[in-house]
Amino acid sequence: MGTTDSGLQETTGPIALIRGFLAGGATGAALAGMVSGVVLDRVPLLLLGAGLQVLTVAVLLIVDSWMKARRGKPVTRTALALIEDLRAVGGETADVLVRFDLTVLPDDRAAYRVTLSQHVNLVDLPTYRPRGMTVVEYCPDEPWEVEIVTPPTPEWARRAETERADPAPESSRAAAPAGSRAGGYGGLVGLLIGAAAVVLLLRGELFADGDPAGRKSSSSTTFSSSTTVSGPTSSMLDIGRMRDTAESLAGRVGTPTVAELSIDERRMAVSGEAGGPQDGMHAIDLRTLPYELFPGLVREARNTLGVRDPGTWRTDVEPASGDRDLTIRVSATGRGAEASLEADAQGRITKRHPD
User: For residue 231, is it left (φ>0), alpha (ψ between -120 and 50) or beta?
Assistant: First the structure.
């Protein structure tokens, strides 16, 4: 329990503040990363957050062990103590947590008051009573560090049975200095900053793609909304996925007619202007598109247009304009090459690039 002056500075001064801040920051970033990984369905982000948390705990344990080894074995002294008051504050097993109010009676210094909490076995609990004497160990350098000795040596047990003492005044109460809480304050600030930093880095994905109500501009009536499929193996090409997603987006934005629609492997996005042109000729009606034909168009673009190892694909639907009918454009990209095809509102291919 005892410590040197340098050890006290390590636990109560700027070092404790910095250490607590760094540990809290790493913990906050790890927790925010894990939560974001779950929300965004990104397993690597979840594993990264969990790994950072494990690394933080391991580093803290190593640093604590090093500091304890550096300080050496604690220096303690034995003394009698008068039990002013005691109260059980918790415990559902054979050991009960008891809060003691003691007057410690060192042989080489003035008596002082202290409060401590310690687990006591139910069998031994009746031996502790108000106004009774007990044996404790305390740290001369940190007098608030006190522990009841169980069991005391025969000599100290006899002294506890025969000697009596008067309570020390309340003004003599010893307590840990406020500086010892520096690590806790630093940890709390670091936790908040670390979590906020991760959320800010991922704000685009957390608050744009996953916005359940869609994004609406405060300065106009334009709207945009998107959704991402969940599950590491899920795809927009799954049977029925595109139509279900389109119906969900129409409900979010409050209209089935939009100005723009784009689809890729895991995401569908729409945008438009409420009451604007998309309600007229230049509109895409999400209810009437041939979604069941889109997967075949994607396979056609990826497999027959000469792109080697196509990695990504994208489908854009363009509304009718003038003499041009609604156009479905599918593009595929791989190894630096890109190919595309166009189809009409019935899913019939009208153009290929390259031919």
Answer: left
CB neighbours of 80 closer than 8 A, spacing ≥ 6?
105, 133, 134, 135, 136, 156, 159, 160, 163, 165
Largest Cα–Cα distance in the chain? Answer: 110
Distance CA 178, CA 182 (A): 7
Q: How many CB atoms lie within 10 A of CB 92?
A: 6
Note whether 86 and 74 are within 8 A (CB): no
Tokens of 301: 């673009």
Residue found by looking up tokens 């906050």 in the block: 28
3-class DSSP state for residue 99?
A: strand
Residue type, 347: G
- Give dist(CA 36, CA 43) in Å, integer: 10
Q: What is the pLDDT of residue 278?
A: 46
- Residue 322 neighbours by CB under 8 Å, 6+ apart: none
Has this prediction a pTM greater than 0.90? no
How deeply is 336 buried, as exposed, middle or buried, from its count of CB atoms within 10 A (0-12, 13-18, 19+)? exposed
| Helix (H), strand (E) at residue 29 | helix 14-40
Strand partners, 146: 138
* Contact criterion met (CB below 8 Å) for 141 and 8: yes
Which residues of the chain form beta strands (DSSP E)? 77-90, 95-105, 112-121, 133-138, 146-148, 215-216, 222-228, 257-258, 260-264, 267-273, 284-285, 312-318, 327-334, 337-343, 349-353
Least confident range from 105-114, 217-226, 233-242: namely: 217-226
